[in-house]
């Protein structure tokens, strides 16, 4: 089971600049069958020196260049990675230049000369510097390059790029010659000093020069080689623009080129057969082969897609199990009042939902309708709160699966009230030809209730609250009306000089919006006796009124009922006296003997009423103080009352016998 190195490993040859560098392998173990995947990471050692493209570099710098000007230097290359790769640069000591080490996006380092003190050609025509590149090994490895700087006369204006950084993206399979970006710079000088030539900066890697080409006249950057996303995802390209002056001015810019992945790698399937041939009696689930799939593409281009077919295993779901809907009465027919929403996580027809209104009560089907496709509930007719306040129904949501799954949702529709009914006067009745007159005697004190206006409002709640106000009266100072009760009271004591007849007009208003009202007319007579009023009413009533004898019939009925009640009470009194006399005689006779044979037996009321057979009753004999005596029960069946008494005496205990032969003064009372 040991994994051995079969030949010398060179990390730079295997992986180049990629880090980490790993080699994948698979191990199959049989009996039992198991598959293990592994990887060997090749760790880097510092076995390579940094290398400059050339051993010498030459720069021409005008003496007019101001302090702070930057000059890119050629970069050294180190095939090692990580800490062993190129880490920094060092510059020999000098009075004019400093070294600024920058880091690219990919982590590589490059150096720029920064002018700290202006040059003077008359003082020094040329400078010699040494640039040293160091890696991070222990001990570090290094490389050196000689930098020769010529100080020349000034070119007044250097080229200027319209932007310092350009960004572009290109697909990895883009053919050679495709335009990537166009850089542009300008120079304010005239003649050759204003002519611009574009080129790669001196520290541009050779790999970039192989993949991209730059037009020196137009500044167009085009694809030259074959781009591969799997090899490099982003290129950082440094370009420069020089004029054609004796001492050329230089400007620098950076172009970031992003390589876009395309699906140019087919999945690689590796099949390892470990069980072949397969016996015909092999059980289901027996492993036949192992497969591993890899794809060098990235993101979605590197997935292996397995389609999962849908099964109708999810019933429709609603955000709530029930809905309460409030609708104003007197609505417009055909308006939508609710949208029942449901979802189904299945796909296709399994997720297609249909809505059906299940009948609640018998009126639901005539009043409501639901859109089968979107679940919108419509009200087909106008509703009346006074007719019905609430409607209950069930909406069934069903998917299109086979078999279909469904969910029921309860819907309650409440009809809210509008103030569409005015108060209705019940007393005095407004639609009759008869005149109802209430009577009050002269001298009646203030605060006496004379009569009451009775009204009802078919609306509900606040819309049904009725207030009563006195709108018109023969004498406004004589009567008042309760604001909420409708009761009419005397406002002051009646005097003899008050008018004998009074007509009151009562205004009834509800509390709805808008306010609806009605009125009632009340007639009140001031009379000493009822006879006078009746005489006046008789004169006022029509001659052919069919109810003119009602009073006489009512009085006659009261007299007959009173007489019947008196006779009934007298009969009950006589019967009570008779029973009392009987009980008194029985008590007197019981004192003359200790025991006498009971007379004819009287059944209890239940037997006498015919509700219980005679053989089921019990005879009871009590002493004078029956509350403290024991009871004797008769046997279930006897042939005669006398025999039953004898059997009872024989079966009774001696103690009970002495109690029986005692006086029976309380017998009538117990019998009662």
Write up what this structure looks like.
- This protein is α+β, with helices and mostly antiparallel strands and 672 residues long.
- Among the domains are: 11-42, no CATH class; 56-152, Cadherins (Immunoglobulin-like), CATH 2.60.40; 160-260, Immunoglobulin-like (Sandwich); 317-416, Sandwich (Immunoglobulin-like), CATH 2.60.40; 424-526, Sandwich (Immunoglobulin-like), CATH 2.60.40.
- It contains nine helices and 38 strands.
- The radius of gyration is 60 Å and the shape is elongated.
List the helices and strands and how they pair.
Blueprint: H1 11-15, E1 21-29, E2 34-42, E3 56-62, E4 70-72, E5 86-91, E6 97-103, E7 109-115, E8 126-135, E9 142-152, E10 160-161, E11 165-171, E12 179-182, E13 185-186, E14 196-200, H2 206-211, E15 212-214, E16 220-223, E17 234-243, E18 250-260, E19 268-273, E20 289-294, E21 317-318, E22 322-328, E23 335-339, E24 342-343, E25 353-358, H3 364-367, E26 368-370, E27 376-379, E28 390-399, E29 406-416, E30 424-427, E31 437-440, E32 449-452, E33 454-456, E34 466-473, E35 479-481, E36 487-490, E37 501-510, E38 517-526, H4 530-540, H5 550-590, H6 605-608, H7 641-651, H8 654-660, H9 667-671
Parallel strand pairs: 3-9, 11-18, 22-29, 31-38
Antiparallel strand pairs: 1-2, 4-7, 5-8, 6-7, 8-9, 10-13, 12-16, 14-17, 15-16, 17-18, 19-20, 21-24, 23-27, 25-28, 26-27, 28-29, 30-33, 32-36, 34-37, 35-36, 37-38
């Amino acid at each position: 089971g040991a994994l051995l190195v079969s030949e010398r490993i060179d990390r730079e040859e295997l992986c180049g600049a990629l880090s980490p560098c790993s080699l994948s392998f698979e191990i199959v173990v049989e009996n039992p069958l198991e598959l293990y995947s592994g990887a060997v990471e090749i760790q880097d050692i510092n076995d390579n020196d940094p290398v400059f493209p050339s051993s010498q570099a030459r720069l021409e710098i005008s003496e007019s260049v101001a302090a702070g000007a930057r000059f890119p230097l050629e970069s050294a290359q180190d095939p090692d990675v990580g800490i062993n790769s190129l880490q920094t640069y060092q510059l020999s000591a000098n009075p004019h230049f400093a070294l600024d080490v920058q880091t690219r996006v990919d982590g590589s380092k490059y150096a720029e000369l920064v002018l700290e003190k202006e040059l003077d050609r008359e003082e020094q025509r040329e400078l010699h510097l040494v640039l040293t590149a160091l890696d991070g090994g222990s001990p570090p490895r290094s490389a050196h390059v000689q930098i020769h700087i010529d100080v020349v006369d000034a070119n007044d204006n250097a080229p200027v790029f319209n932007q310092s950084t350009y960004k572009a993206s290109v697909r990895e399979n883009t053919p050679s010659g495709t335009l990537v970006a166009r850089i542009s710079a300008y120079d304010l000088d005239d003649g050759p000093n204003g002519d611009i030539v574009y080129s790669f900066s001196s520290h541009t890697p050779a790999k970039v020069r192989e993949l991209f080409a730059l037009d020196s006249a137009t500044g167009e950057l085009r694809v030259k080689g074959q781009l591969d996303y799997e090899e490099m995802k982003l290129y950082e390209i440094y370009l420069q623009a020089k004029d054609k002056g004796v001492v050329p001015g230089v400007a620098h810019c950076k172009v970031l080129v992003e390589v876009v992945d395309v699906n140019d790698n087919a999945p690689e399937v590796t099949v390892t057969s470990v069980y072949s041939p397969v016996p015909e009696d092999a059980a289901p689930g027996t492993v036949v082969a192992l497969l591993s799939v890899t794809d060098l593409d990235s993101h979605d281009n590197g997935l292996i897609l397995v389609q999962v077919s849908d099964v109708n295993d999810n019933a429709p779901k609603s955000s709530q199990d029930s809905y309460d809907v409030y609708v104003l009465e007197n609505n417009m027919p055909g308006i939508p009042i609710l949208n029942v929403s449901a979802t189904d996580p299945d796909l296709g027809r399994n997720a297609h939902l249909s809505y059906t209104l299940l009948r609640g009560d018998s009126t639901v089907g005539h009043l409501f309708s639901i859109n089968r496709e979107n679940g919108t509930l419509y009200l087909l007719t106008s509703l009346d709160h006074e007719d019905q306040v609430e409607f209950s129904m069930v909406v069934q949501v069903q998917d299109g699966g086979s078999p279909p799954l469904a969910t029921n949702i309860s819907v309650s529709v409440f009809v809210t009230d509008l103030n569409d009914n005015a108060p209705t006067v019940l007393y005095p009745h407004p639609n009759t030809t008869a005149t109802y007159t209430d009577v009050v005697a002269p001298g009646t004190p203030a605060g006496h209730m004379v009569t009451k206006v009775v009204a009802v409002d078919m609306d509900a709640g606040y819309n049904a609250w009725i207030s009563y106000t006195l709108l018109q009266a023969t004498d406004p100072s004589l009567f008042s009306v309760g604001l909420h009760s409708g009761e009419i009271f005397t406002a002051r004591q009646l005097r003899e000089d008050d008018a004998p007849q009074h007509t009151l007009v009562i205004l009834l208003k509800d509390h709805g919006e808008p306010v609806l009202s009605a009125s009632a007319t009340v007639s009140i007579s001031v009379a000493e006796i009822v006879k006078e009023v009746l005489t006046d009413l008789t004169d006022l009533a029509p001659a052919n009124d069919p109810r003119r004898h009602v009073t006489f019939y009512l009085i006659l009925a009261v007299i007959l009922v009173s007489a019947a009640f008196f006779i009934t009470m007298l009969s009950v009194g006589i019967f009570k006296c008779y029973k009392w006399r009987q009980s008194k005689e029985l008590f007197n006779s019981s004192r003359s003997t200790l025991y006498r044979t009971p007379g004819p037996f009287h059944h209890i009321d239940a037997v006498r009423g015919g509700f219980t057979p005679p053989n089921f009753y019990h005879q009871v004999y009590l002493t004078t103080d029956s509350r403290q005596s024991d009871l004797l029960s008769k046997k279930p069946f006897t042939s005669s009352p006398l025999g039953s008494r004898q059997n009872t005496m024989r079966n009774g205990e001696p103690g009970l016998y002495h109690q029986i032969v005692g006086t029976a003064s309380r017998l009538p009372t117990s019998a009662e």
